[in-house]
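Risk mitigation, structural track. In case the binding assays with beta-D-fructofuranose fail to produce interpretable data, a predicted complex structure has been prepared as a fallback.
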Amino acid sequence: MNDPNGPIWWKGKYHLFYQMNPHAAVWGDMHWGHAVSVDMVHWKHEPIALAPTHNGPDSEGCFSGSAVVFDGVPTIIYTGVKNAPPELVTIHDGADKLREVQMLATAEDEDLLHWKKRAAPVIATPPSGMKVTGFRDPCPWKEDDGWYLAVGSGVRDQGGCVLLYRSQDLRHWEYLHPLVWGKPNGKQAVNPCDSGEMWECPDFFPLGDKYCLLYSTEGQVIWTTGHYDRKTHVYTPEQRGLLDHGAYYAPKSFLAPDGRRILWGWIPERRPEAEYSAAGWAGLMSLPRVLAVGQDGRLRITVAKEVELLRGKERRAQFGPIHKADQESIVAEFVSCRGELKLNARRTGDPFEIQFSGEGGVSWLEIKFDPSRRTQVMIDGQMLSLDSGEEEELQLHAFVDGSVIELLVNNRQAFTKRFYYSGTSAQTLRIAWRGISVDLVSSSSWELAPISNDRLTR
Ligand code: FRU
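Fallback model:
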């Protein structure tokens, strides 16, 4: 699987669709997989929701998109791709074979199992006169005077952008203008996604008293918060950052019934294709992350409280005084790589390290604090800024499952790590504290229950 698609809450259930290849654990022949849940934690697989139509505008794939309710009917807007003559091609990635159009499908039943596609695209070509690098991943929302739609795009030498459309019925769309433009990163790349000349998966929504735009490019997700003028429909980003510093891409949000803005993200593989192809599965969905805007206008990320449903008994790390900065103590142990850790540490004059490791001490994730750089923390060699006062403790919140660690730092930074082990079953993961003990304010851990008995671990 890759991108999450069309998350929606409908008739008391959370539905989540996602890009999947039903034939092999490699990218290709994109379909929309479907899963349903009552709590965002326990999931049931449903049959494929969307498949390419032979000879249709999506014959080569049903790419990413969104789901909304229009006139009481759940409605999907997605990108269809098919082979096309050079003048109609919109994906200029070196292969230059595919044409992208925006498609619509409506639900035929309350369980969202059957979808009826509208045969003709609802947007058949990019804006006239525009030579785009790509044209995909529609994201609709409603305003007082109608529906709006953001489409990911870009232009060579000018940068990635998001194109803005308007409609009254989701079927007829009028192009307005770019919602926002980026800049190329200056790299020469055949694929415009590598040079910042194409933005994928735009996601645009109000958040607190700001608006938030997420987009994916150069293998990373950028968040921006800013001002959206509802009269001119121009978005001005004010603050920006990386949504995650590790393996995380193409996220997609939705509004939960209680008003929370929940984000799903694709956690890709970090091992060679031959290995994941042999494993028979590739890619996974992140935990649900709740987005908010802080006083400083910057993004805040927490993991949805529903995930606490999986917690076993709390274990608090306790050990006597340690006076040496290089002395190590185990704060948590997760059998079968399943667990949650909450650790707070004081940022004072002493260095400390927290290490996640497997059997034989092989290191899977390393967090280091250096008192000469008190506003930063180093994770796996990457320096992350904490954007917070020095008096605030370092707050780590980590979830371990199989071959992934999702780590949040002070609810400001995220770092998703993939790690792999040999053997057929998940190992025991240990978390060690190296530093003097007075700096370790608290450390709690929980075993997490698996949600199925055929859990994929490696
Ligand atoms: C992002 C992406 C989207 C596209 C989909 C195809 O990972 O490239 O832009 O719609 O994946 O699977």
